[in-house]
Amino acid sequence: MPGKTPNSNGKEPVENGGYPGSKDIEMKDDASSIKGKGKKGGKDTDEEMTVVVPMSKKQSSAPPSNDADGDVNMEDTEKEGEAKVDPVAQSVSDIKSNFALLDRAVALFDARFTLRALRSVSSIRQRLTPDILAQVIAETFPASSTSGDAAKHLLTALDRGNTTLGRQSSTESESETEAKASAKNGNKKEAKDIIPEIDIFLGILVQVYLYDSKQFERGAEFSSYLSDRIRSLNRRTLDSLSAKVYFYYSLFCESIAPLPPSPQSPIIALRPTLLAALRTAVLRKDIDIQSSVIVLLLRNYLLMSHINQADLLVSHTQFPENAANNQVARFLYYLGRIRAIQLRYTEAHEHLTAATRKAPSSMCALGFSQTATKLLLVVELLMGDIPDRATFRVASMEQALHPYFLLVQAVRVGNLEDFETTIADHADTFRRDGTYTLILRLRQNVIKTGIRMMSLSYSRISLRDICIRLHLGSEESAEYIVAKAIRDGVIEATLDREHGFMKSKETGDVYATREPTEAFHDRIRACLALHDESVKAMRFPMNQHRLELKNAQEAREREREMANDIQEGDLDEDDLGGDFDGI
Which InterPro entries match (predicted)? Predict the structure, then answer.
């Protein structure tokens, strides 16, 4: 259709500074000139000039093929214009493009470039193969470099130990003749050593490939070598890379049989390595390694059900305030799980709520969001609250939270029979999520909820009816449960033991109390805390404030010298370079 443009879906920039959907600008002068050229007898028309462009030999010798109707077939010309991209060469170039970022990170001592290189691992990992990694290693490490041992370890982990180092890539082969000519003339350049950051980055790619190919034992052995090499290097520019190495090292040990919580699991043997790394990181103030190792140790203790040791670790260590947002979210989740097991539900609810808010919104972190939300729902039920129904309507979590939705329905109504049926039907799911033992504690909450619903519905109800509705064993157990609910403040009622009934008190207006104000205050406090943490999490260039202070100091010195010159009479208005008419 004329006057319409195809939908660009936001990928192409909008011209003329407009926005999608804005009106097009009418080009009246151009349109009239085009129409005027088409008419021979039109008024005020310029003389037409025809430019003849000679055809090249290639075009004249190979004309485009015509179809049956005489039209030109454009498919062949489009195929000739498209350059075929080799996926292997593209993967190699994508990996090598991160080396420049690592060089800049070392030169400027700025960890942002290292983090940018690590973010590209997720897009590269789908294309990783042993041949691609071996080609990158062979083209990166020269044969005469001092880091040849590191390259051999990388190739051995990939079963490519026979690969020769110092191979020339396709882009470097063009300048090979120039290098030889310069060598003959005496301009021979020494082979440049590879910085350790590139070596460790390639080691992380090898770890990723071994983990995706489920070679856990080989990956654990290679990760042990990589962690030893990191400790021997002792470079602050390796902090972000070292944290990732320890992360995959822990994953390898968790996946090797016997699996946790077996006492013979390899993750127990990993603890001394992680604790030594934590001590060194605290002394050197390495925020990345410190936050990552604390999270890995908490995960290690929880997998082995060592809750007391995890609590001791939290009490004797201080999680860094400037840690990455992802590590903070993981730490808050594990801390919330520890507090929930310790029956400290209020603290667990605060930590888990903060963890779900800090969780990334991308689909890559969907599993973490689902796991944290499941535990948060159980903690809310244990606190006596009913979760919001909108939580279960999120498209990305609706299917995963369906068993918990049935559980919430049973607790909300106070139906003990439906509660036990839900647990029996979805016991495997709850065990896999690690919430089964916490859900078993909800039986008393279901009974209390049922009693509270009956106290709101009836002004007086007999203990026998309570026993029948809640499916209790006897009236004595119903009497004890009602008395405990009155003592805990769950319901406002009185118990008549002689006549065997429960009499409810009249409920007052909740808005006349301080509860709405306290809830509003809690929400404001959560928003302010989120704002403060967001400001703290912002990253800035290293030592930028020192440069600003230096420039400001130089400017003050220049102003002081200029003021002294003016007082002494050495400068006048012309020397200052301006007309002071407005003063």
Answer: CSN3, PCI_dom, PSMD3_C, TPR_PSMD3_N, WH_DNA-bd_sf
